[in-house]
Amino acid sequence: MPSHRRTARAGAVVLAVVATVLTGCERGTSTGGGSYSPGPARTGCPTVLAGARAAVQRAMTTHSAWDGPTTGPRAVPGKRIVYVAQTMNNPGVAGAAKGVQEAAKTIGWNVRVIDGQGTPAGIQAAFSQAITLRPSGIVIGGFDPHLTAQQVAKANAAHIPLVGWHAVDAPGPSKDPKLFSNVTTRVQDVARISADWIIAHSHGHAGVVVFTDASIPFARNKSELIKKALATCSGIRLLAEENIPIPDTSSRTPQEVSSLLSRFRDRWTHSVAINDVYFADAAPALRAARKKGGGAPFNIGAGDGDPSAFQRINSREFQAATVPEPFAQQGWQILDEFNRAFSGRPASGYVAPVHITTAADSGGATTWDPPGYRAAYRKIWGR
């Protein structure tokens, strides 16, 4: 949502809505992002539940003030950046690339995007092509740099700064592989708030299915953190963990969802997935089982927040919430990190806070675009 629509008044409205969302409704009713009550008011983990409710309220609130960097070097002129994309079919990778391109117009740089087509060979070829262009900097857009170890080494030897987007587990500078900075939210925060949402939404009593891709270390770690956080509430039951590789979601998820419905029936009240894409592919099976789009199982995506996820949430079609990445803001941050590298300054160290989007606080938007960063970066860059 454009920053000018994000106001303090909107934040106050969200607080009021969150309070309503978390106070409960009767079993069998739903308002998409609304509450689920498994029966008489009872709490299996009162302390954990209270903390989860407070965390969810904070994560749903939209603040009008920018909390990122407000000082830094003026724009270095005439730089050329190449964005090597894991695949532009990935909405997150494409969203961050769009943010980089938008910021480049403001700072006065040239950006070229090279699509790795989602295969190891394609990504390696794209990275090699990027190096031959002798750019000022290269973005590692959404893939593991160890996949392109030779290309990373060549870029390092040529003194081409590398900035990652979701390239390694942790945000900030990386020594191995050598990255000037990695722009991402903290996986621990994303996992924790996803679990908190389930705990708060269910009043501490839920039957949960976790969807993950164990072939990706980052995704496997995220799902392990989610399970650990869910286990802090004694009223939460982990019914199953479904390991479905992301490339196979469209072919495997519908069948697995049908099987889960047969096994658990009404005991399956909530789901959490390491990426929103699982719920796009779960929807046909849930619809075929005559499940209501705004009813159980209530689904939350622990990361990404692509436009299709927002559309499902806004229309209450088999997804109740997501923990979205601020793609455009991260694209602007990527260019700011490069500008710091070119100026001999350290990385900014900024990490965007986690946010939860539901139908109650999305405002009809199709992406999470926090306020204030464009004006802040323009001021830093002197633009």
UniProtKB/TrEMBL annotation:
It is found in: Cell envelope. Signal peptide: none annotated. Residues 81-335 form the Periplasmic binding protein domain. GO terms for cellular component: cell envelope. InterPro entries: Peripla_BP_I, SBP_2_dom. GO terms for molecular function: carbohydrate binding. Keywords: Signal. The keyword Cell inner membrane does not apply. The keyword Metal-binding does not apply. It comes from the Bacteria. Belongs to the bacterial solute-binding protein 2 family. This is Sugar ABC transporter substrate-binding protein.
